Write a sequence for this structure.
């Protein structure tokens, strides 16, 4: 986890969440995790969040195929046009299903960061990995974890690091 030591997070009222990249083999996991992230961020009631369609519209208008590679100039322009103080980028590094007997569990790895539109600097970054089936799950067959539950759990852990 990283926090920019000189950044004032109270200056952030509204953020844009760029669709997460998916480096895993799990098709659609980037979009799915982005939606969960937005919902959980809204549930914390800390920031307003730009509607995903507005963010996508901005990216399309700029011809950005790989949104995570926006340069500082485009991040500042996004800030002005969408009236945001921060832009959130994320990557699903791993999303895999594991079987232990007749139980299924999922492992997810996420890397998320927030960039200040004023400076173009990363002001918060965090990485989280959920683990596979635990000892008691394997021993007693309890606590099966779906893909959705694993993603939600990982996102909640990530967002908690933002508000520590």
């Amino acid at each position: 986890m990283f926090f920019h030591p000189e950044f004032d997070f109270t200056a952030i009222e509204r953020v844009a969440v760029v669709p997460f990249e998916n480096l895993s083999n799990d098709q659609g996991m980037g979009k799915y995790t982005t939606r969960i992230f937005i919902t959980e961020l809204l549930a914390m009631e800390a920031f307003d969040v730009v509607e995903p369609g507005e963010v996508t519209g901005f990216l399309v208008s700029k011809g950005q195929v790989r949104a995570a590679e926006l340069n500082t100039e485009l991040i500042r322009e996004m800030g002005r046009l969408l009236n945001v103080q921060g832009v959130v980028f994320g990557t699903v590094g791993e999303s895999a299903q594991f079987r232990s007997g007749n139980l299924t569990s999922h492992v997810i790895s996420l890397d998320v960061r927030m960039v200040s539109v004023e400076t173009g600097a990363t002001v918060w970054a965090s990485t989280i990995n959920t683990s596979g089936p635990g000892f008691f799950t394997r021993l007693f067959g309890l606590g099966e974890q779906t893909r959705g539950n694993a993603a939600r759990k990982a996102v909640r852990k990530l967002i908690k690091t933002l508000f520590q």
